[in-house]
Amino acid sequence: MLRGNAGEIATLVGADAEVRGVESVSTGLDAADLAREAARRLGVIASVTGVVDHVSDGERVLAISNGHEWLSTVTGTGCMSSAITGCFLAAKPGDPLESAAEALAAFGVAAEDAAAGAAGPGTFHALLYDALYALEPDTLDGRAHIEEL
Predict the structure, then answer these.
(1) What is the pTM of this model?
(2) Angstrom distance (rounded) from CA 112 to CA 138
């Protein structure tokens, strides 16, 4: 399993990318194509996170449209999404593509909930932990926006 922003993943597969620190600025491929290419080249499930997250096994690509813009303002949310993806993969190892997409949807739904009660990125960060803790499977099932491209 591989998870990163577009700049990080593009760098790993040798595509054109502009990266400043850990922030992706631009790449030569769109995120769906980048996820597919990374999965093919590296032989893993690849997740490219951003405004819309994309997960691929090298053939299929799933787009996840949950989340909030404040995720990009808080240090460590990429690492958090990687950790949650690992948890989902451990709980449902039979379908890693679906598990990775569901993990990113869950993280996105929690971000949406945290943002609803936050005054800004600082309180959002603290509330994100609470929202992840409070997330229920039924909530996720009703709010996950996962689409096959």
Answers:
(1) 0.89
(2) 16
